[in-house]
Design a protein that fits this description.
With about 210 residues, the chain is an alpha/beta fold. It has a single domain, classed as 3-Layer(aba) Sandwich (Rossmann fold). The chain has six helices and nine strands, in the order H-H-E-E-H-E-H-E-H-E-E-H-E-E-E. The chain has a seven-stranded mixed beta sheet with strand order 5-4-3-6-7-8-9. Strands 1-2 form a two-stranded antiparallel ribbon. Strand 8 and strand 9 form a beta hairpin. Helix 1 runs antiparallel to helix 2. The chain is globular and about 50 Å long. The chain starts with a helix and ends in a 10-residue tail after the last strand. The relative contact order is 0.13. Bound molecules: S-adenosyl-L-homocysteine (SAH). The site of S-adenosyl-L-homocysteine (SAH) has 24 residues, from strand 2, helix 4 and strand 4. S-adenosyl-L-homocysteine binds next to strand 2, helix 4 and strand 4. Its EC number is 2.1.1.77.
């Protein structure tokens, strides 16, 4: 598959759709205009890649809806050079958005098939996260902590404590919390022990799974 002018035109329209739903950060909208989402998906979905919808990827997972990606990214309030941990790499689309915002990205995926596939794709496309880890993101990445931002792209039954402890003071965790549906939460670390919690709308994600061993 290639990236053509037609794809670019569809991306501009997608950015308008996402903006009309309330996304304001110009850097996030620019990322949507720039990143060739169709290349992150199976070729059979190519014709749908610029609809504002989630689609299946490998291993029964989904590429998140562009609006959701934009919403979570906006909530993270990233500055260039920020260290960001992403749990649930999936197709790598959200990763590419974070890289476009010039974050230093650490990303974790627990499905081996997807991990391998996306690893090859990152290499092919020249996307360079600081680290791409195969494993359970429930535990975070203590050896690289603390982070300015942590983003979870799967529905968490509860907020993993490890992720809170790996935030810098002032750092933000953006996480959808719930089982069937999820409430988008942003938890900001105000001091060593104090966390501010804000909740936003309802979303629907595949589950965040914990590897119990
Ligand atoms: N941002 C991705 C979303 C993929 S769906 C995209 O837009 O493509 C969520 C991903 O989280 C899935 O790939 C799933 O395998 C992964 N996941 C679920 N539980 C996880 C865990 N504990 N650690 C790491 N990844 C996990």
């Amino acid at each position: 598959m290639k990236d053509t002018l037609k794809h670019r035109g569809m991306r501009n329209q997608l950015a308008e759709v996402v903006a009309a739903k309330g996304i304001e950060d110009p850097r996030v909208l620019q990322a949507i205009r720039a990143i060739p989402r169709h290349l992150f998906m199976d070729s059979s979905f190519e014709g749908h890649a610029y609809q504002d919808k989630a689609f299946p990827i490998a291993a029964d997972q989904t590429i998140s809806q562009p609006y959701t990606v934009a919403f979570q990214t906006e909530l993270l309030e990233i500055q260039a050079g920020d260290k960001v941990l992403e749990i649930g790499t999936g197709s790598g689309y959200q990763t590419a958005v974070l890289l476009h915002l010039k974050a230093k990205v650490f990303t974790i995926e627990r499905q081996l098939e997807l991990f391998k596939k996306t690893n090859l794709f990152f290499k092919k496309m020249g996307y360079r996260p600081k680290k791409y880890v195969f494993g359970d993101g429930y535990k975070g990445l203590p050896e690289e902590a603390p982070f300015d931002g942590v983003i979870v792209t799967a529905g968490a039954p509860e907020v993993p404590k490890a992720l809170l402890s790996q935030l810098k003071i002032g750092g933000r965790l953006v996480i959808p919390v719930g089982t069937d549906n999820q409430v988008m939460m942003r938890i900001t670390r105000k001091s060593e022990k104090e966390f501010e919690r804000e909740s936003f709308g309802t979303f629907r994600f595949v589950p965040l799974l914990e590897d119990k061993n």
